[in-house]
């Protein structure tokens, strides 16, 4: 029995049926596993048998048979098998025109093959041709997790500013640090610098090296959208085959017209973009530029930065190719070091093992859910509904957010329900299949939900799936396996979002509202219990409660109270659910944070307390730290001026330090032009520039003044001048300091100064009266 790790999956149609192709990494190198003679499958209502048979009888290469499955309305179904997908697509078209429903037609054959065998990433097989790269196999089986080291290569290219000329290609990894440079270069350098006659020679040498190094993974920064796409264009212009895949295969491209994103499929290799995978792993940065992220994670930086980086690259290509190569290679190394520091490859592998998704699938929460859920649903005797099949006027609400009590407080505790929505699903047995089963059961065999939903106490799928993941995460934490723990957390927390998404075939507002409304009820009842213990809850948000300890002064007493409240509330819920519903509680509230000082602002311009916005001081391993949530200090659409101003002002106010003189000095420095570097706004274009017709916000106005208009998704950096918004790189007018005073400093200051009986305008005006 041989084992490997899935890299890519494909299928082909031929005379013997569907041929599935799986590239896998093994200790002996990559292998192409070929499974022949497969068929596509979908399902139809058994009562439609005669109509469908008459409708498609003239078509070849299909068959049908009864199966022990039914649809969600408990109607028995038959399976329809087709020799190839062309036949299935033709049947789909005829059936739709005749009003005959077919189910599960959209599942790709390799995915169907893997999910029904519970294969996610680790596979095993028998083959009589063990040494060959292409291995015909009868079947694949799931394998235990194995330690196979995937070979990764970091890739970066440099081009002219107009993207019409390739300058160099850098690669780092697989025991090489090398740059291919167009033009003559010195022979003696501290790294491999390969001179290339022209662009075609550069591309050819790179592709030859790729075949020899044979990496499993290509990594980069904007790798697919820029580097690989540009290499494909350069190869096309040079009439050179872009043989990026194994066995010389060319990649396939797909472009999403709505998002303007490009996707690539490389047979036998996987392309991973550092930006996408940092976001997928829940990393957050003010900017995802390579220079900023490497500075934050590594304390390292690119060798060229600034607004004229493109011009400097062109100058180096003409006059100092060694310096350009060094810059090119540094970018490759930074990406490789970021992947290592953030354990991104480990996270990608853990996610693939959990979800069954292809390694390069960044999003895919719905697909991940269905990959796990569908085979279990089939074994429970059901098939899945089609997307959009259910129509309902029920609206599922979001998380419960309490009205806050604004003010400044000493000693506020945050009690947080650990993975609240997954724990609700586990506790109250919420599940699409369980909902279908309950419709035919007596009340004592079900658990009540909301909006008329009930859930079967037996036969459910999702609660057990979450319990399994929950236990796996606890084990990963005990082993110190942070990437796996994070991957499990993200997957579990995505399940509610999937069930609440109309893009999921299992969407039903009665099911997802049974999660959110139960969450509302839990937060409200938990608040009442805490207040019955003599404490005031000043705020609650989805899965957290903020408790003010008015009569406690010492930090150790506050923390002891937090621990006791969490333990008491957990006990109360266990007793309550067992007594009232005969359910075992998986709810787990934790004492998360002790704020020594805490500020809850009002809604701007009102006396009502705000929501999802607060600040406070906590003590931890790093000492005393000021924490912000939702306020300007952590919002990248506010200037650095406002963010730094808020942090310092709040710190001074919380700590009882002198602040009025400092505030007036900041205002004076702004007016004197001493803080100009902090006045840049930065905002992303959410639409195409041409789509902004009636309303053009400031960043769009600035973008329209650039010589090369940015694309959707690009960041725009701009300043507010006396003549309106202007791009940072093309500023021509004096800055409008009155704007920054009124729109950046005043709102930040007045949010908290009112609590101290002060107003920003009065302080500033009094200062002006002195002159």
UniProtKB/TrEMBL annotation:
Q: What is its EC number?
A: 2.7.7.7
Going by the record, the broad EC class of this enzyme is transferase
The family database entries (InterPro entries) matched by this protein are listed as:
DNA-dir_DNA_pol_B, DNA-dir_DNA_pol_B_CS, DNA-dir_DNA_pol_B_exonuc, DNA-dir_DNA_pol_B_multi_dom, DNA/RNA_pol_sf, DNA_pol_B_thumb, DNA_pol_palm_dom_sf, DNA_pol_type-B
The entry's keywords: DNA replication, DNA-binding, DNA-directed DNA polymerase, Nucleotidyltransferase, Transferase
What Gene Ontology molecular-function terms does this entry list?
A: 3'-5'-DNA exonuclease activity; DNA binding; DNA-directed DNA polymerase activity; nucleotide binding
Which residue intervals define the domain DNA-directed DNA polymerase family B multifunctional in the entry? 374-734
- What's one GO BP annotation on this UniProt entry? DNA replication proofreading
Q: What range(s) does the DNA-directed DNA polymerase family B exonuclease domain occupy?
A: 160-293
Q: Which PROSITE patterns match?
A: DNA_POLYMERASE_B
Q: What is this protein called?
A: DNA polymerase
What is the organism of origin for this protein? Simiduia agarivorans (strain DSM 21679 / JCM 13881 / BCRC 17597 / SA1)
């Amino acid at each position: 029995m041989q084992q490997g790790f899935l890299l890519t999956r494909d299928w082909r149609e031929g005379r013997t049926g569907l041929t599935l192709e799986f590239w896998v990494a093994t200790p002996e190198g990559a292998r192409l596993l070929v499974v022949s003679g497969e068929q596509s499958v979908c399902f139809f209502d058994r009562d439609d048998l005669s109509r469908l048979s008459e409708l498609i009888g003239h078509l070849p290469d299909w068959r049908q048979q009864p199966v022990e499955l039914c649809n969600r309305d408990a109607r028995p179904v038959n399976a329809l098998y087709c020799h190839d997908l062309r036949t299935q697509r033709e049947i789909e078209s005829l059936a739709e025109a005749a009003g005959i429903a077919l189910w599960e037609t959209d599942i790709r054959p390799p995915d169907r093959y893997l999910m029904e065998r519970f294969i996610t990433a680790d596979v095993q097989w028998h083959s009589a041709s063990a040494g060959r790269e292409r291995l015909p196999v009868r079947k694949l089986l799931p394998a235990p997790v194995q330690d196979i080291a995937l070979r990764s290569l970091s890739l970066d290219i440099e081009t002219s500013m107009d993207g019409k000329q390739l300058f160099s290609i850098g690669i780092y990894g697989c025991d090489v640090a090398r740059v291919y440079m167009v033009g003559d270069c010195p022979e003696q350098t501290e790294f491999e610098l390969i001179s290339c006659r022209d662009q075609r020679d550069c591309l050819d040498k790179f592709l030859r090296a790729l075949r020899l190094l044979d990496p499993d993974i290509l990594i980069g920064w904007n790798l697919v959208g820029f580097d690989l796409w540009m290499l494909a264009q350069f190869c096309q212009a040079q009439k050179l085959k872009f043989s990026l895949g194994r066995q010389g295969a060319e990649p396939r491209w797909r472009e999403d017209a709505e998002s303007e994103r490009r996707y690539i499929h490389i047979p036998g290799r996987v392309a991973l973009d550092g930006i996408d995978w940092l976001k997928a792993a829940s990393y957050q940065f003010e900017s995802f530029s390579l220079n900023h992220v490497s500075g934050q994670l590594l304390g390292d930086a690119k060798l060229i930065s600034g607004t004229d980086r493109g011009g400097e690259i062109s100058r180096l290509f003409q006059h100092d190719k060694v310096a350009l190569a060094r810059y090119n290679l540094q970018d490759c190394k930074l990406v490789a070091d970021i992947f290592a520091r953030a354990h991104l490859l480990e996270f990608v592998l853990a996610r693939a093992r959990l979800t069954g998704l292809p390694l390069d699938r960044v999003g895919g929460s719905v697909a991940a859910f269905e990959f796990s859920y569908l085979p279990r649903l089939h074994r429970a005797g059901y098939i899945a509904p089609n997307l959009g099949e259910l129509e309902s006027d029920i609206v599922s609400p979001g998380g419960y957010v309490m009205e806050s009590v604004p003010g400044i407080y000493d000693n506020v505790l945050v009690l947080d329900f650990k993975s609240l929505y997954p724990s609700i699903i586990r506790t109250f047995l919420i599940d699409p299949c369980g909902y279908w089963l309950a419709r035919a059961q007596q009340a004592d065999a079900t658990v009540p939900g909301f909006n008329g939903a009930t859930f079967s106490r037996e036969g459910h799928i999702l609660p057990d799936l979450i319990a399994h993941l929950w236990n796996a995460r606890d084990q990963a934490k005990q082993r110190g396996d942070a990437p796996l723990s994070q991957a499990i957390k993200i997957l579990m927390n995505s399940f509610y979002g999937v069930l609440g998404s109309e893009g999921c075939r299992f969407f039903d507002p009665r099911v997802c509202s049974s999660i959110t409304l139960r969450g509302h009820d839990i937060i409200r009842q938990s608040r009442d219990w805490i207040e019955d213990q003599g404490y005031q809850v000043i705020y609650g948000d989805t899965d957290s409660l903020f408790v003010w300890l008015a009569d406690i002064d010492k930090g150790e007493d506050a923390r002891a109270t937090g621990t006791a409240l969490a333990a008491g509330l957990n006990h109360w819920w266990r007793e309550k659910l067992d007594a009232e519903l005969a359910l075992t509680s998986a709810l787990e509230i934790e004492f998360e944070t002790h704020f020594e000082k805490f500020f809850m602002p009002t809604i701007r311009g009102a006396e009502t307390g705000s929501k999802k916005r607060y600040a406070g001081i906590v003590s931890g391993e790093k000492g005393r730290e000021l924490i912000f949530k939702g306020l300007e200090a952590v919002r990248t659409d506010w200037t650095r001026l406002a963010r730094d101003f808020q942090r310092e002002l709040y710190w001074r106010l919380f700590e009882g330090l002198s602040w009025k003189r400092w505030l007036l000095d900041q205002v004076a420095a702004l007016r004197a032009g001493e803080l100009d570097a902090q006045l840049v706004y930065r905002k992303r274009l959410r639409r195409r520039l041409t789509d902004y017709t009636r309303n053009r916000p400031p960043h769009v106005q600035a973008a329209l003044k650039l010589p090369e208009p940015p694309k959707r998704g690009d960041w725009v950096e701009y300043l507010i001048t006396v003549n309106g918004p202007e791009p940072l790189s093309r500023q021509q007018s004096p800055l409008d300091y009155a704007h920054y005073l009124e729109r950046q400093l005043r709102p930040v200051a007045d949010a908290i100064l009112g609590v101290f009986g002060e107003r920003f305008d009065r302080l500033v005006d009094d200062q002006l009266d002195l002159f």
